[in-house]
Design a protein that fits this description.
By secondary structure, the chain is an alpha+beta fold. It has a single domain, classed as Arc Repressor Mutant, subunit A, CATH 1.10.10.10. Helix content is 65%, strand content 12%. It starts with a helix and ends with a helix. This is DNA-binding transcriptional regulator, MarR family. Keywords: DNA-binding, Transcription, Transcription regulation. One of its GO terms (molecular function) is DNA binding. InterPro entries: HTH_MarR-typ (IPR000835), WH-like_DNA-bd_sf (IPR036388), WH_DNA-bd_sf (IPR036390).
């Protein structure tokens, strides 16, 4: 019996996330890694709504995650002066200090993940993932 592709993708996603988390001191949560990556690469301030859309989470779930990260000192929020219903999310100095650790962990896990693959195979694999995702949108 052939496994559903969703099961294989879920296993890969979970193993990947756990592998990255193992490489970071203090064992931060998976969403901290995602949010640090989003905020550190953003060219404009990110709102909770924007982050929720990128992570495909509902607004109430992202609010709980951001509140926890604020409490732990990794992020802080600020009201959008143009729309007081929106909150911008920013990295604190502590959150910014995590960025190189997160990137190093991602790089190390990617090196292991892609071991034995050529650059063309890696690009093909990543392209196929994008195509599969786009086919279901």
């Amino acid at each position: 019996m052939q496994l559903m592709i969703s099961k294989q993708l879920r296993k890969l996603k979970n193993r990947y996330a756990q592998s990255v988390l193992k490489e970071i001191p203090g064992k931060p949560g998976e969403y901290l890694i995602d949010i640090i990556t989003i905020l550190s690469s953003a060219t404009q301030p990110q709102t909770q709504k924007m982050i929720a859309e990128l992570l495909e989470l509902d607004k109430s779930r992202i609010a709980v995650i951001i509140d926890a990260l604020n409490t732990k000192g990794y992020t802080y929020t600020s009201l959008n002066p143009a729309d007081r219903r929106e909150h911008f999310v920013f990295l604190t100095k502590k959150g910014q200090a995590m960025q190189p650790l997160v990137q190093a962990a991602i790089d190390k896990v990617n090196e292991t993940l892609y071991k034995g693959m050529t650059t063309d195979q890696i690009l093909q694999f990543e392209g196929l993932l994008v195509r599969l995702n786009n086919n279901l949108v």
